[in-house]
Amino acid sequence: MQITDLKPALIWHYFHEITQVPRPSKKEEKIRAYLLNFAQTQGLEVKQDKIGNILMSKPASAGCENAPVVTLQSHMDMVCEKNGDIEHNFDTDPIQTVIEGEWVRAQGTTLGADNGIGMAAQLAVLADKSLKHGPINALFTVDEETGLTGAFNMEDKMIEGSYLLNLDSEDEGQLFIGCAGGIDTTAVFTYSPSMLPDNYQYFKISVKNLLGGHSGGDIHRGRGNANRILARFLWQSAQKYDMILSHMDGGNLRNAIPREASAIIGIHKNDKEKMRVDLNLYIVVMEEELKEIEPNFTMTMEHESEPDHCIDRRTTAALIEALYACPHGVVSMSRDMEGLVQTSTNLASVKMPGENKIVVATSQRSSVESEKYDIARRVECLFTLAGATVSHSDGYPGWKPNVKSPILSLAVAAYEELFGVKPLITAIHAGLECGLFLKKHPQLDMVSFGPTLSGVHSPDEKMHIPSVEKFWKHLTAILEKVAETKA
Q: Which residues form the Peptidase M20 dimerisation domain (predicted)?
């Protein structure tokens, strides 16, 4: 069975088409071309702002012309992560989808259901002539995943009316009415290349096969962070051996918990077997600490050819100590909404881009603005003490919940009528574009929802097939309820 055989046929048809179009963050030109062609084919009014966001407009169905305008919104880009043994070029290759029972996943890569299924729902609504609805705008934003660039730079003309349905949530049966704000903190170490000592052998220490996941939605699960696991072993080894560091690489994206990390180190040839024993003991400790959380965790030590140079010892010590000490995970829980993470931080990636630099990327989230800046400054202080140069992104605001929201009331009523139960009303620790929309358009009344996704921002990403049909029914029922009201 292929995903094009699934029901409802229209939404799965468009989701399949979207998976065939490469759309990495900041490289949305192909998906934009696809969307513009769709609008032309459907005879829809369409406009594009300078940053690349696209807005399509569909007139109301007959008799609903006086209903409020509803903006449906999702983002074009996807997180591009793959397993190390998979050959895949996200710039050119389509996503290969696989059906397993009640789930759709990709073949060793991220699926892109975040937020491809939201886009597919918008296109299905725009294409479906049988729906009852008022005036509909469909907003597609660019570069959500790496900086909310489209939402930050969106022109005012792209949103009109007071109702917005964000289709970028991952738990069917839940209505999200708030989200965390976020900020990125980046530390840059500059090192001096050093000569290699005599009688040293070189090894690659690797951490692999962690679950990773979304640094907002999965941060409370206690999953392993490959950068921290590796740094902990390197720090421990540096206390015992005259160890040098030549290279380090871990994680990829600021909003993903790192699944893999590696370092090329050198030790005196007389110490190599001792270190190997130490590693085996360390693996036992990690397996005990991570049991039932990271069932596939592996850590290896492999011979490596002699590098051209190593990182100077002062920077090596500072880097390892800072990575070992850097906080990661939940900082505080909400006192207003039970079970909601309030503040967190993610030690996201360690990269060596050249020019004798080591770049450490971290991200912080909080539903309380003061706490967001507090944890970012704590991370800044740590890396400043280690001798790095630290900078922050502009950050983005959170979305304060409004339990008296009219669109929320309509969404709750629609769900109860369809399925006989009340949906869960909650907030999300992940960042949504809604906070930026609200900042620019204070009149907006918003709710976010979607089908059930699992493992987003990792190659384990999958989407629950039955939840897609419930999501579609709920979306169209909300539009019908709005159509029965007056603007």
A: 206-292
Distances in whole angstroms, Cα of residue 105 to Cα of each of 100, 235, 350, 405: 8, 38, 28, 35
Asked if 367 and 181 touch (Cβ cutoff 8 Å), the reply is: yes
| Cβ atoms of 148 and 115 closer than 8 Å | no
Residues labelled as active-site residues: 77, 144
3-state secondary structure of 271: helix
**Percent of the chain beyond pLDDT 90?**
88
Contact by Cβ (8 Å): 310, 266? yes
Residues 6 or more apart in contact with residue 210 via CB below 8 angstroms: 223, 224, 225, 226, 229, 257, 258, 259, 260, 294, 296, 297
Q: What digits encode the pLDDT tens for the residues 44-65?
A: 999 999 999 999 999 999 999 9
The CA distance from 103 to 141, in Å, is 27
Whether the per-residue pLDDT at 403 is higher than 90: the answer is no
Quickly count: other Cβ atoms within 10 Å of residue 421's Cβ: 9
User: Tell me, what's the pLDDT at 430?
Assistant: 83
Q: What pTM does this model have?
A: 0.75
